[in-house]
Design a protein that fits this description.
Helices cover 24% and strands 13% of the residues. It has 189 residues and is α+β, with helices and mostly antiparallel strands. It has one domain (5-174): Rossmann fold (3-Layer(aba) Sandwich). Strands 1-2-4-3-5-6 form a six-stranded mixed beta sheet.
Amino acid sequence: MINKGLMSGNTPEWATPQWLFDIPDGVYRFTLDPCSTHENAKCRRYYTREEGGLSQSWTGENVFMNPPCGKEIAGWVRKCFKESVSGGGRKVVLLPARTDTRWFHDYVYGRAEIYFIKGRLKFVDGKGSALFPSMIAVWGGSNDEYERAAALTKGIRHERDDEEKKGQRTPVHDSGWMGTEMDAGEAPH
């Protein structure tokens, strides 16, 4: 059965599977979830829609977020990029892999570490798999953190800047968050 809300925008909020949060949390030790509900917050410190996470400071915070899908996603992605440049800390975001969007080209591509998730995620409150591919974007991580994240993971398509090549893109290679044989909706074994 297809969950029409995953594509139609009936609801912009889809809870992140706990295992998908736990893996990068083991590297980045998140301190803030700026766009959550009381029921699906992943960090001790969090903001709900009513508290307006976009208008709050994230200075120095290690952020994990799964922003609401739809038109408002661009504002969340822009905020992550700007906060990573001016406020420090790491910003790790679960996003739809929409490489054809302006927000992807303005704030993600060439500016963040990108991990493309193989398969389709099964969100906590969704019925069935998402109808869109997903990716993880990381702003502000160190090379050591990127390597530790890659060592914890296997099977995500990963693309990163190669500083030695002065901004030229390196080929996409496997190294990511999920095993090649597992469903994206299942926790790693």
